[in-house]
């Protein structure tokens, strides 16, 4: 096997390779190394017309980093459907040729593992794996499975499940932190993403990452593991922060919060959390390790009931976008940083255009007609902020009763969303979109009638993916001042960072990140 290293208890980044030709597999091995992988998992069952001796010699002779050889049969979720004897012979051959790791399914491990270990004495390791159908088993059943796997005397064990809910990951973390041998355990799919990202915190041996241009659901990219999440910096003391949302794939929070946490030398990680059931989530993740959350669509209002205490501004708004677990007693405290984040962005844009409002020395919004589209959590924050500045509110929502409820809270007017297509605003009014309309991938939609955009002095869009939405492009063409949701995102994130860490956020540093990466 040469001088190429083997896995230790410290986490290593692994790229799964599923090329259909051995030539492409060799190319991908070198690409994976260049993108930050420590080890690659070579799936022999994906190679078309696989020739065991010829192809394995090519792979092992040309490997630039350690290789895990996997030949996954159909009955364990793979693609191989041929003779089982031939499959096992190929794994024996890989071992003989000097593969760094051989992955054996639990079903066949007991009959092969001693043979491989006795035959190959110069450092090759055996991984015993189990791919589970359905939801992640209970802690008790996982413990029985792990005991069975450890009894094979595997060097490393690997357990993979299909996550139906993010709360199942807590069982994965329990497995990792209590296993007596190096372990790999994760769940596939978007709900299982945190099982990869938090693997180093709980003692996992491997974290998987996909190569550029080859995204795999539930896997972070190799680049994000190295650059955004810096998995080599995560340890058992790392505090976990995350975005509680559904969906979460659009979020750029990790690109901002993780570098900023490292910039101030705070041992924390910020991860996307695809949550289906708020009550289950907060019941299961009650550990002090889970120190705080951003709250996104569609939970900003619903999450209020799960907070032990709510800050007066958030209570007035009726929506929470930030939760902190108070260290002294573990209670969840809810805050809202959307309100000031959005309103100050709008005010500053008006002031930058040297707009003067003679009726108020405090805010250029005083007395202005302010149209809010969407009466959810973000809309409530914007409306309450605008009301506090003396604006006159009109609320549009697809749910008229929800619009009326918000309108009563801000002494405004409520209308159904459909009537917005025919609504004629006052000249110089403000328009704020607080719906997901225009968010990637449905980027061609706008919430208001295009022909009315010229009547607005300023148009704000809370959507920040893409940065320049179609609404903002059309408003800009119509002559309105435009404010991107990126500006609101930055300002509310600064407020969140202060609450997460108890420190003053490095505002200039955070703005530089947003300008460079958003």
Description:
Helices cover 35% and strands 20% of the residues. By secondary structure, the chain is α/β, with parallel strands linked by helices. The chain has three domains: 12-236, TIM Barrel (Alpha-Beta Barrel); 262-335 and 491-517, Rossmann fold (3-Layer(aba) Sandwich), CATH 3.40.50.10860; 339-355 and 362-483, NAD(P)-binding Rossmann-like Domain (Rossmann fold), CATH 3.40.50. The strands form three sheets. An eight-stranded parallel sheet has the order 7-6-5-4-3-2-1-8. Strands 10-9-11-13-14-12 form a six-stranded mixed sheet. A six-stranded parallel sheet has the order 17-16-15-18-19-20, sandwiched between helices. Helix 9 packs antiparallel against helix 17.
Output the strand order for the largest sheet: 7-6-5-4-3-2-1-8
Task: Please give the domain count.
Answer: 3
User: How would you characterize the largest beta sheet?
Assistant: 8 strands, parallel
Number of helices: 17
Question: What is the CATH superfamily label of the largest domain?
Answer: Aldolase class I
| Low-pLDDT windows of residues | 1-9
Organism: Populus trichocarpa (Western balsam poplar)
Protein name: Shikimate dehydrogenase substrate binding N-terminal domain-containing protein
GO molecular function, one term: shikimate 3-dehydrogenase (NADP+) activity
GO biological process, one term: shikimate metabolic process
Topology (elements, then pairings):
Blueprint: E1 12-17, H1 22-34, E2 39-43, H2 52-61, E3 67-70, H3 84-97, E4 101-105, H4 106-119, E5 125-131, H5 139-150, E6 156-162, H6 169-178, E7 183-188, H7 193-197, E8 206-208, H8 222-226, E9 239-245, H9 253-263, E10 268-274, H10 278-284, E11 290-295, E12 309-310, H11 312-317, E13 322-325, E14 332-335, H12 338-352, E15 369-373, H13 377-388, E16 392-397, H14 400-409, E17 413-416, E18 429-433, E19 456-461, H15 470-477, E20 481-483, H16 485-501, H17 507-517
Parallel strand pairs: 1-2, 1-8, 2-3, 3-4, 4-5, 5-6, 6-7, 9-10, 9-11, 12-14, 15-16, 15-18, 16-17, 18-19, 19-20
Antiparallel strand pairs: 11-13, 13-14
Helix pairs in contact: 2-3, 5-6, 9-17, 12-13, 12-16
């Amino acid at each position: 096997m040469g001088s190429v290293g083997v896995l230790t208890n410290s986490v290593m980044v692994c790229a799964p390779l599923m090329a259909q030709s051995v030539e492409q597999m060799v190319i991908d091995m070198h690409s994976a190394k260049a993108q930050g992988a420590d080890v690659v998992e070579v799936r022999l069952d994906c190679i078309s017309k696989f020739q065991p001796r010829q192809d394995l010699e090519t792979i092992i002779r040309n490997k630039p980093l350690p290789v895990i050889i996997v030949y996954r049969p159909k009955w364990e979720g793979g693609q191989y459907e041929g003779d089982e004897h031939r499959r096992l012979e190929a794994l024996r051959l890989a071992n003989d040729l000097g593969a760094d790791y051989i992955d054996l399914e639990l079903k066949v491990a007991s009959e092969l593992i001693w043979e491989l270990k006795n035959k190959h004495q110069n450092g090759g390791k055996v991984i015993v794996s189990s791919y589970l159908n359905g939801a992640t088993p209970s802690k008790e059943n996982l413990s029985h499975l792990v005991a069975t796997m450890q009894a094979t005397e595997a060097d490393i064990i690997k357990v993979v499940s299909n996550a139906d809910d993010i709360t199942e990951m807590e069982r994965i973390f329990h497995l990792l932190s209590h296993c007596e041998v190096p372990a790999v355990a994760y769940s596939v799919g978007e709900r299982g993403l945190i099982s990869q990202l938090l693997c180093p915190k709980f003692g996992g041996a491997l974290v998987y990452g996909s190569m550029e241009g080859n995204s795999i659901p539930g896997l972070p990219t190799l680049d994000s593991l190295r650059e955004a999440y810096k998995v080599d910096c995560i340890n058992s003391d790392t505090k976990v922060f995350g975005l509680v949302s559904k969906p979460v794939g659009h979020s750029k929070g990790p690109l901002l919060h993780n570098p900023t946490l490292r910039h101030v030398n705070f041992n924390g990680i910020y991860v996307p959390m695809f949550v289906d059931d708020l009550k289950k989530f907060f019941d299961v993740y009650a550990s002090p390790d889970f120190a705080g959350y951003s709250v996104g669509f569609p939970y900003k209002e619903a999450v209020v009931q799960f907070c032990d205490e709510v800050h007066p501004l958030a209570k007035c708004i009726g929506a929470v976008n930030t939760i902190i677990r108070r260290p002294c007693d573990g209670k969840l405290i809810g805050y809202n940083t959307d309100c000031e984040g959005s309103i100050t962005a709008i005010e500053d844009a008006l002031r930058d255009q040297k707009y003067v409002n003679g009726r108020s020395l405090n805010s250029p919004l005083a007395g202005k007609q302010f149209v809010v589209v969407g009466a959810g959590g973000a809309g409530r924050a914007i409306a309450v902020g605008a009301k506090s500045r003396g604006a006159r509110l009109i609320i549009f929502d697809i749910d008229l009763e929800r619009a009326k409820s918000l309108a009563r809270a801000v002494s405004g007017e409520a209308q159904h969303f459909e009537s917005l297509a025919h609504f004629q605003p006052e000249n110089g009014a403000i328009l704020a979109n607080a719906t997901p309309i225009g968010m990637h991938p449905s980027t061609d939609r706008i919430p208001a009638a295009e022909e009315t955009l010229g009547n607005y002095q300023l148009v704000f869009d809370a959507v920040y993916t893409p940065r320049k939405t179609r609404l903002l492009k059309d408003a800009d063409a119509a002559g309105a001042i435009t404010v991107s949701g990126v500006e609101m995102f930055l300002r509310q994130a600064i407020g969140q960072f202060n609450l997460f860490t108890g420190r003053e956020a490095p505002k200039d540093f955070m703005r530089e990140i947003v300008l460079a990466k958003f």
